[in-house]
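Forwarding these from the shared drive since the link keeps breaking.
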Amino acid sequence: MTHILGLTGSIGMGKSTVATMFRDLGVPVFDADAAVHALQGPNGALLPAIEAAFPGTTGPAGLDRAALRDRIFDDPDARRRLEAIVHPAVAAERQRFLDTHAAAPLVVLDIPLLFETGGDARCDSVAVVSAAPDIQRARVLARPGMTESAFAAILATQMPDGEKRARAHHIIRTDTTIGATQVQVAALVACMVPGEGG
């Protein structure tokens, strides 16, 4: 029986780094963001539906993210229309991943808005990647083009870190060394995968 581990964490917490650590230990990882990018990239399966709903937001290079962001930023109805296009397609990709790895003892669903979208209900357990607020802030503001206001806007769409940690079965700290984080990930895999060493 495959154990489905949901992996989530707010922006700048180090979730992508932790997902890579799971992959390096041989655990299959479904990357929801990567699935969305593929569906919306050049010749992506969702481009016709997005173009029909939001004319002028797609082209040969795929989705024009800035144009679409401007279109839906202050419009909850537009955001819901977009989600109605994207979410079912991502769900289908996730199911394909689960079917492909049905024999694996452990799989990871890397989903940024796992709790916010109710995705935790499809997981056997959830690991939240977390770091101290000052470290999170420094990481995010070091990203190209990131501003204080953009960071604040992103945080406003995400469940507070404290609430995520309270709902998690496992917490992986990244406000430490890479090696210490790897030890946490390896220990988690070892307790979920029969026969794995410590």
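-- next protein --
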Amino acid sequence: MQDHTTAAPEARLIRALGVWGLAAGIINVTIGGGIFRLPSAAATQLGTAAPMAYIVCAVAMGLIVLCFAEAGSRVELTGGPYAYVEVAFGPFVGFLAGVLLWVVGTLALSAVTALFADSVGALVPALTGGAARVVLLVAVLGMYAAINVAGIRQGSAVNTVATVAKLLPLLLLVIVGVFAVKGGNLAWTDAPAAGDVARASAFLIFAFAGIESALVPSGEVKDVARTVPRAILMAMVGITLLYIAIHLVAQGLLGGALAGHPTPLAEAAGRVMGPTGRTLLLVGASISMFGYVGGMTLAVPRALFALGRDGFLPRALASVHPRHRTPHVAIWTQGVIVILLALTSGFERLAILANLATLLLYGACCLAAWELRRKNVQAGGIPFKVPGGAVVPFLALAAIAYLLSSITLGEWATAGAVLVIAAILYFVTANARKANPAVR
């Protein structure tokens, strides 16, 4: 196993992210475009019992983030979950986790980037389709890439501003809409089947996912033993409460019309605030996705940096800018990949595959948290310890298994193919990595 204590590229990164900056990053990449669309999907699956899916997701994520909090307080390397799993189980399993991490971030970022282009096109028809769409995506991804190359502080500051901007219309809908909710629209008619709840919850994971990408810049976080667990718990409690409140207000305002509606929150805002409210939510959706793209542009390229640093991908990806001290090659490479996927792929398929990869990655990280505690790995300072640490990781795994029970055979086949290709890449690069080992 490689030495995780010294490294030329790693040591040159600046530790500038604190509790509030990291928490804002988690909220920013978690509250993306999904919450503006997924309430209608949950209602289609479960009707008025849809809040059950949010509760299942919240319970599962609560168990999972406890494991992330402990693992993140014990490992301070860039790569987040990739680094946690590698330190716990060695380079091969760590590499597979790193590939899953990058796949999750890339698919999710590409899906939301495509939705962002659609949303902007709905507001400004001149930017719909063709060359205008390409120019829009290149401009947005290029701008965010340039900001993040300029420095981690600049990227974090933009994320904090975007987080505040995206939350305002959502909070306004909840505050104003709660007074117009019709109680009858919230009444349950039938108890949903367990399989339906699992499928709806697995789909809603897209709205809860993001923590795994927000933690990738661990090598640029101050005092990880204190910062990571506090930021995770602060962000996830707020996100869960907001999601449940949003769905209940939308369901209470729209009733049966919520199921299948393409713009459910904008329609709900229109019911209570008129055309101005509807436009405000449409603009809010665009801002939210714009902020998500910014947050993920900060986080996802660090996975490429980590894979390049370790010799699995070209080492040029681990280059650090001589002046800004940021992984500039990885940032620009990731931007090009996302633009290509956003221009050629659809949201739904990308979201489903991202969810499957996310759940597999979460399972690996839960096991890693248990193993890191068993090995007493410490990054400096006193690590956070999960209450009931011997049991919580396995409860989290049980919750993940329940969500995975709804995944189709075709979706499993796609995930399996990705892991097989990753394993081949690992062994093909073995000799090159031995001849030129990564210095970390």
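The CA atoms of residues 126 and 132 lie 7 Å apart. Residues 264-299 form the longest helix (36 residues).

- D.
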